[in-house]
Amino acid sequence: MVTDCFISVRDVQYELLYDGYNIVVVTDVPCHLYMRWGLVRPRKHSQARFRRGVYMHTDVYLCFVAYHDNEQEEAGDTLVHTFVKRPWPPCQTRYFHFWGSVAGAPCRSTTSVFKLHFGLPPLFTGVPCWHNRIVLSTHSIWPTARGGANLAKYGLYQRPQNIQLVRTWLIGTYFIGRAYQNFDTLDVPAGKTITHGRLGIYVTSLTGIVGQLVITKGLWDEPVIEGDFGLQTNETEVLGQINQADLVLNQYNWIDLNSAGIAWVNQRVGEVNQYESYDWQKTAYFQIYGNNRWSQNFTPLTSHTISSLKLRLKRVGTPGRVVCNIYRTAPSGCPTGTLLTQKQEGSDLVSTGPWGDWFDFRFDYPLNLIKDTKYAIEVWVLGSNSSNRIEWIGNTASQYPNGHACYSTNSGSTWTPHPTYALYFIEYTERIVGGTKFCLRTSFDNSDSPPAPGQDQEIQFVSAQGEVDKQPLLELILD
């Protein structure tokens, strides 16, 4: 039976989300509220009440054609009441009012009928940069594995090999995988405030139901190297997370950023944009000297402009200048087609370290590359011999899907293709991208406590070079 107690709504505020609203209601007395809503404006009726010897049509009640009752988020009786209304389909209008109870006793509500429309929020979508990577660590001791032992970087994400993963496994030894994500947010309009942010990943495979998928700050510089794993170990501030058990296969899973995550957006320096690259599982040195030359071909997945190259080179002795050519190639993929551009650099700054280092070639004029067209990078060295040479780092068992290496022993007159070889390269455009870097990790990896046996956790998701409707997305709501 409804008592003669009344609930009066004094304030209603709406917070816009990506897919609905947070609705906050303030009442005059502590109570427990319900939100009754429908898609058709309810009809208002009055009923006679006998007051002071006279029947008066003063009390009103509402008739909904169809309705839903949603309970406030807070427990018990409160003055402030929160209702999370999501998902709310775009362009849908809802009508609602509030009713409730005090100390468990139903009360009359004097609230009016509210009307609220959900349009598309003012979104900014951070474009995923192609140079995302995975770094894996493995060791039998947990702290050693977390610190980065037996590191391996994986970077093959061109279609169809377009999967990234986050992993914590215990199978005789610990296996930890961290996924590095870079988003182009430099074009967030000046003067705008980011009110909400979320990261979306399209999940394709899941292992385990315990723990969380965690976002932390990304601290690396491009390109990602194995040693960047150690930089992330102590960066454990959580920017957003989602329970492993809440992840759903074959759809986007959205992770809301907290205030620290929103503050991190655009806190990294922009970098020149990368397109095609091969930079993982180095196993071999390919020697370049005298008449001996090596080349690496690639096929762009999209048309773009190339302004510079990075090649991973090592110097032995004191060779002369290093020459880098780009050809539009014959079907074999070897540099026997049209020479498009050339750049020479002194070799004195090439690394002499065990696996060399990245070395820049900046072309005097940008070069337009055409989608699905094969190009070849050729390298040779002036004033060189077997004791004074350049070595190009690569792999003799490559799985790079968009090209392979070629070898010449007669200064490029004839070439021998090596379909299973690939040499380290990264090609860049002039466009500056980036601004927001994340490292995705498991909650076990983000703590000092190892997972118990059987608490294996892995998330596989489509990488930035996957299908455009499944790539990682960073969505921001601006004021």
Oligomer: single chain
What would the average pLDDT be, to the nearest integer? 91
* Main sheet attributes: strand count, strand direction, barrel closure: 8 strands, mixed
The residue fraction in helices comes out at under 10%
Low-confidence stretches: none
Radius of gyration: 30 Å
| Strand tally | 35
What does this entry look like structurally?
The chain has 479 residues and is mostly beta strands. It folds into 3 domains: 6-121, Immunoglobulin-like (Sandwich), CATH 2.60.40.10; 125-270 and 434-478; 274-430, Jelly Rolls, CATH 2.60.120. It is 4% helix and 54% strand. It has 3 helices and 35 strands. The chain has helices at residues 142-147, 228-233, 259-264, and strands at residues 6-7, 9-17, 20-38, 43-51, 54-63, 68-71, 78-85, 92-102, 105-109, 114-118, 123-128, 133-139, 152-154, 163-170, 174-184, 194-207, 212-217, 240-243, 251-256, 271-278, 284-288, 293-298, 304-316, 322-328, 338-345, 357-369, 375-381, 389-395, 405-408, 416-418, 422-423, 425-433, 435-442, 457-462, 473-478. The strands form 5 sheets. Strands 1, 2, 3, 6, 7, 8, 9 and 10 form an 8-stranded mixed sheet that branches. The radius of gyration is 30 Å and the shape is elongated. The mean pLDDT is 91.
How is the secondary structure organized here?
Blueprint: E1 6-7, E2 9-17, E3 20-38, E4 43-51, E5 54-63, E6 68-71, E7 78-85, E8 92-102, E9 105-109, E10 114-118, E11 123-128, E12 133-139, H1 142-147, E13 152-154, E14 163-170, E15 174-184, E16 194-207, E17 212-217, H2 228-233, E18 240-243, E19 251-256, H3 259-264, E20 271-278, E21 284-288, E22 293-298, E23 304-316, E24 322-328, E25 338-345, E26 357-369, E27 375-381, E28 389-395, E29 405-408, E30 416-418, E31 422-423, E32 425-433, E33 435-442, E34 457-462, E35 473-478
Parallel strand pairs: 1-9
Antiparallel strand pairs: 2-3, 3-6, 3-7, 3-8, 4-5, 8-9, 8-10, 11-15, 11-35, 12-13, 12-15, 14-15, 14-34, 15-33, 16-19, 16-34, 16-35, 17-18, 17-33, 20-32, 21-28, 22-27, 22-29, 23-26, 23-28, 23-32, 24-25, 24-27, 28-31, 29-30
